[in-house]
């Protein structure tokens, strides 16, 4: 009984100490310290990924999104963006049982003097989705939801990589 109480008290003491000192995992607040004050994003105007990345960058106080590349300290170049869907498994009748969805983005970041801050970087995300012929509309909706989830995950990965850039 005494050892349980001692363990419980020591656990509470450690948790209170960590909470009291302001300890937080880096990026856990959703705020990142970017090594530049302005950025130009080379996404098409209708790109949902570009819109979400802009929204996340604007959420922080330190970065301006420039519409003119010549005014930006950093240039985010999209080298490729693609979504894919491939058959992952078949049932005993040869019909699709599972698909594998993929979302790939290839990008680089340059400074105003055209020097690479981050070389060509590829991020590929994959999600598996079960398929049922009797629920085609529901599965299409689930597929779109998975792509939106991958897009949000991709934006967070981009934000972390932008924050990790070492200024020249």
Tell me about this structure.
This is LPS-assembly lipoprotein LptE. InterPro entries: LPS_assembly_LptE (IPR007485). Component of the lipopolysaccharide transport and assembly complex. Interacts with LptD. The chain is an alpha/beta fold and 168 residues long. It has helices spanning 2-20, 48-59, 136-163, and strands spanning 38-42, 64-66, 74-90, 96-111, 116-130. The protein has a single domain (27-163), classed as Double Stranded RNA Binding Domain (2-Layer Sandwich). The protein contains three helices and five strands, in the order αβαββββα. Strands 2-1-3-4-5 form a five-stranded mixed β-sheet, with helices on one face. β3 (74-90) and β4 form a beta hairpin. The longest helix has 28 residues, at 136-163.
What's this entry about, in short?
The protein contains three helices and five strands.
- In CATH, the topology is named Double Stranded RNA Binding Domain
CATH class: Alpha Beta
Query: Structural class per helix/strand content?
Result: alpha/beta
Runs in which pLDDT lies below 50 for 5 or more consecutive residues are none
> What is the CATH homologous superfamily assignment?
Lipoprotein like domain
Count of individual domains: 1
Subcellular location: Cell outer membrane
Main location: membrane
Function: Together with LptD, is involved in the assembly of lipopolysaccharide (LPS) at the surface of the outer membrane. Required for the proper assembly of LptD. Binds LPS and may serve as the LPS recognition site at the outer membrane.
Organism: Massilia consociata
């Amino acid at each position: 009984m005494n050892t349980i109480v001692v363990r419980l008290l020591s656990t509470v003491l450690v948790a209170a100490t960590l909470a009291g000192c302001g300890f937080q995992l880096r990026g856990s607040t959703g705020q990142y310290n970017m090594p530049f004050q302005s950025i130009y994003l080379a996404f098409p105007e209708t790109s949902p990924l570009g819109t979400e990345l802009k929204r996340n960058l604007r959420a922080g106080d330190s970065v301006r999104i420039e519409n003119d590349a010549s005014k930006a300290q950093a240039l985010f170049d999209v080298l490729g963006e693609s979504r894919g869907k491939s058959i992952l498994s078949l049932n005993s009748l040869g019909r699709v049982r599972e698909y594998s969805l993929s979302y790939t983005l290839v990008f680089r970041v340059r400074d105003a003097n055209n020097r690479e801050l981050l070389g060509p970087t590829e991020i590929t995300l994959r999600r598996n989705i079960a398929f049922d012929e009797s629920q085609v509309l529901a599965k299409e909706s689930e597929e779109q939801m998975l792509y939106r989830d991958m897009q949000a995950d991709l934006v967070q990965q981009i934000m972390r990589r932008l924050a990790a850039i070492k200024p020249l």
